[in-house]
Amino acid sequence: MSEKAQKRFDHHGKTSRGFLDSGKILSAIGIKEGDRFLDLGSGEGYLSIAASQAVGKQGIVYAYDTDEKAISRLRKEQMENSIALLCHQLRTSRRSFLLTMRA
Fold first, then answer.
1. Where are the domains of the chain?
2. Do residues 53 and 26 make contact, with C-beta atoms less than 8 angstroms apart?
3. 16: closest CA among 47, 38, 37?
4. pTM of the predicted protein model
5. CA distance linking residue 28 with residue 89, whole number of Å
6. CATH (residue range 3-102)
7. Is the dihedral of CA 92, 22, 50, 36 positive or negative?
8. What is the pLDDT of residues 18-76, one digit of tens each?
C-alpha cells in the first residue's frame, strides 16, 4: 500500500497499522480461501482489506463499525483495490455501518 494510502488510516488519530501485522494475524487464525471473516470495529478496514484478499472470491468479509467516516474510508479503499462489494448497509438511527465484500 502506498504511503499516501496509509495516511488515510487515521481513525480518531489511532490506527492498528503501525503495530499489527495483518498477515501474521490472519495466518495465526488460519483464514483461507472461501472463509467468512467478521471484523468488528473495523475502522478504516486495515484487517478487512487484507482478509478480503485471503478469503478470495469464494469467501466473504463483513466489516462493521459505528463510525460513518471510517466506513466511508474503507469503501474508498475497497473501490481503489477492486474488491467486490456485496452489500453496504447503513443504519443511521443506531449508528451502525456494515460493509460486506470479497476479493
1. 3-102
2. no
3. 47
4. 0.71
5. 29
6. 3.40.50.150
7. negative
8. 778 889 999 999 999 999 998 888 888 888 889 988 998 888 888 888 787 888 888 88
- What residue has cell string 502506498? 2
Residue reference for cell 467478521: 38
- What's the 3-state SS for 66-85? CCHHHHHHHHHHHHHCCCEE
Whose cell is 443511521? That residue is 92
pLDDT of residue 1: 46
Write down the residue that cell numbers 490506527 correspond to.
Answer: 15
What grid cell was written down for 40? 468488528
The long-range contacts involving 21-29, CB below 8 angstroms and separated by at least 24 positions, are 22/46, 22/47, 22/50, 22/51, 23/50, 26/50, 26/51, 26/54
Longest dimension (CA), the chain: 36
Q: Are strands 36-40 and 60-65 parallel, antiparallel or unpaired?
A: parallel
Q: Which three cell numbers, joined as nine digits, stand for 20?
A: 499489527
Q: What angle do CA 30, 46, 68 make, to 5 degrees?
A: 125
> How many angstroms separate the CA atoms of 34 and 79, rounded?
21
